[in-house]
Design brief:
Elements lengths: L1 H8 L12 E5 L4 H12 L3 E6 L2 H15 L4 E5 L5 H14 L5 E4 L17 H23 L3 E6 L22 H22 L5 E7 L13 H9 L7 H13 L9 E4 L2 E2 L9 H15 L5
Parallel strand pairs: 1-2, 1-4, 2-3, 4-5, 5-6, 6-7
Antiparallel strand pairs: 7-8
Protein backbone atom coordinates (compact mmCIF):
# COMPACT_ATOMS: atom_id res chain seq x y z
CA UNK A 1 0.00 0.00 0.00
CA UNK A 2 2.69 2.47 0.98
CA UNK A 3 4.66 2.01 -2.23
CA UNK A 4 1.54 2.63 -4.32
CA UNK A 5 0.82 5.76 -2.33
CA UNK A 6 4.38 6.92 -2.97
CA UNK A 7 3.90 6.29 -6.68
CA UNK A 8 0.93 8.67 -6.64
CA UNK A 9 2.08 11.17 -4.05
CA UNK A 10 5.85 11.21 -4.11
CA UNK A 11 7.39 10.79 -0.69
CA UNK A 12 4.99 13.18 0.97
CA UNK A 13 3.84 12.19 4.40
CA UNK A 14 3.56 14.17 7.57
CA UNK A 15 3.50 13.62 11.30
CA UNK A 16 1.72 16.98 11.78
CA UNK A 17 -0.72 16.98 14.71
CA UNK A 18 -4.04 18.84 14.75
CA UNK A 19 -4.80 18.75 18.47
CA UNK A 20 -7.00 21.74 19.41
CA UNK A 21 -7.88 22.33 15.73
CA UNK A 22 -11.41 22.14 14.33
CA UNK A 23 -12.00 20.70 10.86
CA UNK A 24 -15.21 20.62 8.80
CA UNK A 25 -15.38 18.13 5.91
CA UNK A 26 -18.42 18.05 3.63
CA UNK A 27 -19.45 14.65 2.26
CA UNK A 28 -17.35 12.92 4.91
CA UNK A 29 -19.38 9.72 5.12
CA UNK A 30 -17.99 8.04 2.01
CA UNK A 31 -15.03 7.88 -0.37
CA UNK A 32 -12.19 10.38 -0.10
CA UNK A 33 -14.14 12.56 2.34
CA UNK A 34 -14.33 9.69 4.79
CA UNK A 35 -10.62 8.85 4.38
CA UNK A 36 -9.72 12.52 4.86
CA UNK A 37 -11.81 12.58 8.04
CA UNK A 38 -10.14 9.38 9.28
CA UNK A 39 -6.64 10.78 8.70
CA UNK A 40 -7.32 14.13 10.36
CA UNK A 41 -9.05 12.40 13.30
CA UNK A 42 -5.89 10.31 13.80
CA UNK A 43 -3.98 13.59 14.05
CA UNK A 44 -6.15 14.66 16.98
CA UNK A 45 -8.47 17.14 15.25
CA UNK A 46 -12.03 17.89 16.31
CA UNK A 47 -13.69 16.64 13.11
CA UNK A 48 -17.16 17.74 12.03
CA UNK A 49 -18.54 15.43 9.34
CA UNK A 50 -21.07 17.48 7.37
CA UNK A 51 -23.30 14.99 5.55
CA UNK A 52 -26.65 14.70 3.83
CA UNK A 53 -27.24 11.03 4.70
CA UNK A 54 -27.15 10.96 8.50
CA UNK A 55 -27.57 7.18 8.80
CA UNK A 56 -24.46 6.59 6.67
CA UNK A 57 -22.67 9.40 8.52
CA UNK A 58 -23.28 7.75 11.90
CA UNK A 59 -21.86 4.43 10.67
CA UNK A 60 -18.78 6.21 9.26
CA UNK A 61 -18.34 8.22 12.46
CA UNK A 62 -18.33 5.08 14.64
CA UNK A 63 -15.74 3.48 12.37
CA UNK A 64 -13.52 6.59 12.43
CA UNK A 65 -13.72 6.92 16.22
CA UNK A 66 -12.82 3.24 16.66
CA UNK A 67 -10.00 3.45 14.16
CA UNK A 68 -8.49 6.74 15.37
CA UNK A 69 -9.19 6.49 19.10
CA UNK A 70 -10.38 10.09 18.81
CA UNK A 71 -13.79 10.59 20.42
CA UNK A 72 -13.96 14.19 19.20
CA UNK A 73 -15.66 13.34 15.90
CA UNK A 74 -19.23 14.48 15.30
CA UNK A 75 -21.77 14.41 12.47
CA UNK A 76 -23.98 17.26 11.39
CA UNK A 77 -26.71 17.45 8.76
CA UNK A 78 -25.82 19.35 5.58
CA UNK A 79 -27.67 19.08 2.27
CA UNK A 80 -25.79 21.22 -0.24
CA UNK A 81 -28.68 21.01 -2.71
CA UNK A 82 -30.81 23.16 -0.40
CA UNK A 83 -29.66 26.63 0.70
CA UNK A 84 -31.97 26.42 3.73
CA UNK A 85 -30.01 23.37 4.95
CA UNK A 86 -26.69 25.16 4.27
CA UNK A 87 -27.85 28.15 6.32
CA UNK A 88 -29.07 25.95 9.19
CA UNK A 89 -25.77 24.07 9.29
CA UNK A 90 -23.71 27.30 9.25
CA UNK A 91 -25.88 28.85 11.95
CA UNK A 92 -25.24 25.84 14.18
CA UNK A 93 -21.47 25.98 13.58
CA UNK A 94 -21.31 29.73 14.19
CA UNK A 95 -23.23 29.27 17.44
CA UNK A 96 -21.44 26.19 18.80
CA UNK A 97 -17.83 26.36 17.55
CA UNK A 98 -15.31 28.90 18.74
CA UNK A 99 -13.04 28.22 15.74
CA UNK A 100 -12.85 26.54 12.34
CA UNK A 101 -9.23 26.06 11.30
CA UNK A 102 -9.76 23.90 8.22
CA UNK A 103 -12.79 23.76 5.90
CA UNK A 104 -12.67 21.01 3.28
CA UNK A 105 -15.33 21.48 0.59
CA UNK A 106 -15.24 17.86 -0.52
CA UNK A 107 -18.82 16.75 -1.24
CA UNK A 108 -19.86 16.41 -4.83
CA UNK A 109 -22.12 14.71 -7.31
CA UNK A 110 -21.01 13.58 -10.72
CA UNK A 111 -22.69 13.18 -14.07
CA UNK A 112 -26.23 12.73 -12.78
CA UNK A 113 -29.34 12.93 -14.98
CA UNK A 114 -30.71 16.48 -15.28
CA UNK A 115 -32.37 17.70 -12.12
CA UNK A 116 -32.62 20.86 -10.06
CA UNK A 117 -31.83 21.74 -6.46
CA UNK A 118 -34.45 22.97 -3.99
CA UNK A 119 -33.63 26.51 -5.17
CA UNK A 120 -33.90 25.72 -8.88
CA UNK A 121 -30.18 25.45 -9.71
CA UNK A 122 -28.86 22.73 -12.04
CA UNK A 123 -27.92 19.97 -9.60
CA UNK A 124 -24.15 19.61 -10.29
CA UNK A 125 -23.50 23.37 -10.36
CA UNK A 126 -25.83 23.85 -7.39
CA UNK A 127 -24.20 21.24 -5.14
CA UNK A 128 -20.58 21.27 -6.29
CA UNK A 129 -20.18 25.04 -6.60
CA UNK A 130 -23.05 27.14 -5.21
CA UNK A 131 -23.64 25.05 -2.08
CA UNK A 132 -19.97 25.30 -1.11
CA UNK A 133 -19.77 28.98 -2.14
CA UNK A 134 -22.65 29.78 0.24
CA UNK A 135 -21.25 27.59 3.02
CA UNK A 136 -17.85 29.30 2.80
CA UNK A 137 -19.49 32.74 2.80
CA UNK A 138 -21.50 31.93 5.93
CA UNK A 139 -18.44 30.60 7.80
CA UNK A 140 -15.81 33.06 6.55
CA UNK A 141 -15.88 35.40 9.57
CA UNK A 142 -15.37 32.49 11.97
CA UNK A 143 -12.61 31.08 9.74
CA UNK A 144 -10.87 34.48 9.62
CA UNK A 145 -11.00 34.71 13.41
CA UNK A 146 -9.39 31.24 13.54
CA UNK A 147 -6.36 32.19 11.41
CA UNK A 148 -4.01 30.67 10.47
CA UNK A 149 -6.72 28.70 8.68
CA UNK A 150 -7.18 26.87 5.39
CA UNK A 151 -10.00 26.30 2.91
CA UNK A 152 -9.61 23.31 0.58
CA UNK A 153 -11.84 22.92 -2.48
CA UNK A 154 -11.89 19.46 -4.08
CA UNK A 155 -12.05 20.11 -7.83
CA UNK A 156 -11.07 17.73 -10.63
CA UNK A 157 -9.14 17.31 -13.84
CA UNK A 158 -12.66 17.21 -15.30
CA UNK A 159 -12.60 21.02 -15.13
CA UNK A 160 -11.22 20.70 -18.67
CA UNK A 161 -14.52 19.14 -19.87
CA UNK A 162 -16.60 22.27 -19.47
CA UNK A 163 -16.70 26.04 -19.61
CA UNK A 164 -18.61 28.58 -17.53
CA UNK A 165 -21.78 29.25 -19.51
CA UNK A 166 -22.81 32.59 -18.07
CA UNK A 167 -25.82 32.80 -20.38
CA UNK A 168 -27.07 29.30 -19.47
CA UNK A 169 -25.52 28.52 -16.08
CA UNK A 170 -28.33 26.09 -15.19
CA UNK A 171 -28.07 24.18 -18.51
CA UNK A 172 -31.70 24.91 -19.35
CA UNK A 173 -31.12 25.37 -23.08
CA UNK A 174 -29.08 22.19 -23.38
CA UNK A 175 -27.73 19.66 -20.89
CA UNK A 176 -24.65 17.54 -21.32
CA UNK A 177 -23.99 15.74 -18.05
CA UNK A 178 -20.18 15.62 -18.46
CA UNK A 179 -19.93 19.28 -19.53
CA UNK A 180 -22.14 20.34 -16.61
CA UNK A 181 -19.88 18.39 -14.24
CA UNK A 182 -16.86 20.04 -15.87
CA UNK A 183 -18.43 23.48 -15.45
CA UNK A 184 -18.98 22.84 -11.73
CA UNK A 185 -15.37 21.70 -11.23
CA UNK A 186 -14.01 24.65 -13.23
CA UNK A 187 -16.10 26.86 -10.95
CA UNK A 188 -14.38 25.28 -7.90
CA UNK A 189 -10.95 26.35 -9.23
CA UNK A 190 -12.05 29.86 -10.23
CA UNK A 191 -13.70 30.30 -6.81
CA UNK A 192 -10.42 29.26 -5.17
CA UNK A 193 -8.49 31.92 -7.12
CA UNK A 194 -11.00 34.69 -6.37
CA UNK A 195 -11.27 33.78 -2.70
CA UNK A 196 -7.48 33.66 -2.27
CA UNK A 197 -7.21 37.22 -3.63
CA UNK A 198 -9.91 38.47 -1.27
CA UNK A 199 -8.22 36.80 1.72
CA UNK A 200 -4.69 38.08 1.10
CA UNK A 201 -3.04 39.11 4.34
CA UNK A 202 -5.71 37.53 6.58
CA UNK A 203 -3.79 34.33 7.41
CA UNK A 204 -6.49 32.29 5.64
CA UNK A 205 -5.19 30.39 2.61
CA UNK A 206 -7.16 28.56 -0.10
CA UNK A 207 -6.33 25.56 -2.30
CA UNK A 208 -8.04 23.55 -5.03
CA UNK A 209 -7.05 20.07 -6.14
CA UNK A 210 -7.57 17.08 -8.39
CA UNK A 211 -7.82 13.96 -6.19
CA UNK A 212 -7.07 11.57 -9.04
CA UNK A 213 -9.48 9.16 -10.64
CA UNK A 214 -10.82 7.48 -7.54
CA UNK A 215 -12.97 4.36 -7.30
CA UNK A 216 -15.90 5.78 -5.41
CA UNK A 217 -19.65 6.16 -5.30
CA UNK A 218 -19.32 9.22 -7.54
CA UNK A 219 -19.46 6.78 -10.46
CA UNK A 220 -22.93 5.50 -9.52
CA UNK A 221 -24.72 7.52 -12.25
CA UNK A 222 -22.59 6.30 -15.17
CA UNK A 223 -24.07 4.30 -18.04
CA UNK A 224 -23.28 0.59 -18.31
CA UNK A 225 -20.59 1.00 -21.04
CA UNK A 226 -18.94 3.72 -18.94
CA UNK A 227 -19.07 1.46 -15.86
CA UNK A 228 -17.31 -1.22 -17.95
CA UNK A 229 -14.64 1.26 -19.03
CA UNK A 230 -14.06 2.24 -15.40
CA UNK A 231 -13.51 -1.44 -14.55
CA UNK A 232 -10.97 -1.80 -17.38
CA UNK A 233 -9.02 1.18 -16.07
CA UNK A 234 -9.21 0.07 -12.43
CA UNK A 235 -5.44 -0.68 -12.16
CA UNK A 236 -4.74 2.98 -13.01
CA UNK A 237 -7.23 4.42 -10.56
CA UNK A 238 -6.73 5.25 -6.91
CA UNK A 239 -8.29 3.86 -3.79
CA UNK A 240 -10.12 6.35 -1.59
CA UNK A 241 -7.11 6.42 0.76
CA UNK A 242 -4.79 7.39 -2.13
CA UNK A 243 -7.39 9.84 -3.44
CA UNK A 244 -7.56 11.61 -0.08
CA UNK A 245 -3.83 12.33 0.10
CA UNK A 246 -3.87 15.62 -1.83
CA UNK A 247 -6.79 16.93 0.27
CA UNK A 248 -4.78 16.09 3.40
CA UNK A 249 -1.64 17.65 1.89
CA UNK A 250 -3.46 20.93 1.13
CA UNK A 251 -5.02 20.93 4.60
CA UNK A 252 -1.85 20.43 6.63
CA UNK A 253 1.42 20.63 4.66
CA UNK A 254 3.60 23.25 6.41
CA UNK A 255 5.30 24.16 3.13
CA UNK A 256 1.96 25.51 1.79
CA UNK A 257 1.61 28.01 4.62
CA UNK A 258 2.53 30.95 2.38
CA UNK A 259 0.83 29.63 -0.77
CA UNK A 260 -2.75 30.47 -1.68
CA UNK A 261 -5.03 30.17 -4.70
CA UNK A 262 -3.16 27.30 -6.36
CA UNK A 263 -4.27 23.99 -7.88
CA UNK A 264 -2.68 20.70 -6.78
CA UNK A 265 -2.56 17.06 -7.80
CA UNK A 266 -0.58 14.12 -6.37
CA UNK A 267 0.53 16.29 -3.42
CA UNK A 268 2.25 18.83 -5.67
CA UNK A 269 1.39 21.97 -7.64
CA UNK A 270 -0.29 21.03 -10.92
CA UNK A 271 -1.21 22.67 -14.21
CA UNK A 272 -4.83 23.53 -14.86
CA UNK A 273 -6.37 24.71 -18.12
CA UNK A 274 -6.14 28.30 -19.34
CA UNK A 275 -9.87 28.71 -18.62
CA UNK A 276 -9.13 27.87 -14.97
CA UNK A 277 -6.74 30.85 -14.70
CA UNK A 278 -9.10 33.39 -16.29
CA UNK A 279 -9.46 36.02 -13.58
CA UNK A 280 -11.99 38.05 -15.55
CA UNK A 281 -14.27 35.00 -15.79
CA UNK A 282 -13.58 34.23 -12.11
CA UNK A 283 -14.90 37.70 -11.21
CA UNK A 284 -18.00 37.29 -13.40
CA UNK A 285 -18.66 33.89 -11.83
CA UNK A 286 -18.26 35.41 -8.35
CA UNK A 287 -20.80 38.14 -9.14
CA UNK A 288 -23.24 35.67 -10.71
CA UNK A 289 -22.92 33.30 -7.73
CA UNK A 290 -23.70 36.14 -5.30
CA UNK A 291 -26.67 37.16 -7.44
CA UNK A 292 -28.04 33.60 -7.66
CA UNK A 293 -27.67 33.10 -3.89
CA UNK A 294 -28.87 36.59 -2.98
CA UNK A 295 -25.77 37.40 -0.90
CA UNK A 296 -23.54 40.50 -0.77
CA UNK A 297 -19.94 39.21 -0.85
CA UNK A 298 -17.55 41.82 -2.24
Amino acid sequence: MHSIRNFFCGQWSSTARLDDKTVIITGANTGIGKETARDLAKRGAHVIMACRDMAKAEVAKKEIIEDSGNENVVTSKLDLSDTKSVREFAELINKEEKQVNILINNAGIMMCPYSKTADGFEMQFGVNHLGHFLLTYLLIDLIRRSAPARIVNVASLAHSWGSIRLDDINSEKSYDTAKAYGQSKLANILFTRSLAKRLQGTGVTVYSLHPGVVQSELWRNLSTPMQMAVKVFRPFTKTSVQGAQTSIYCAIAPELERESGGYYSDCAPARCTRAATDDEMAQKLWELSCQMLGIPWD
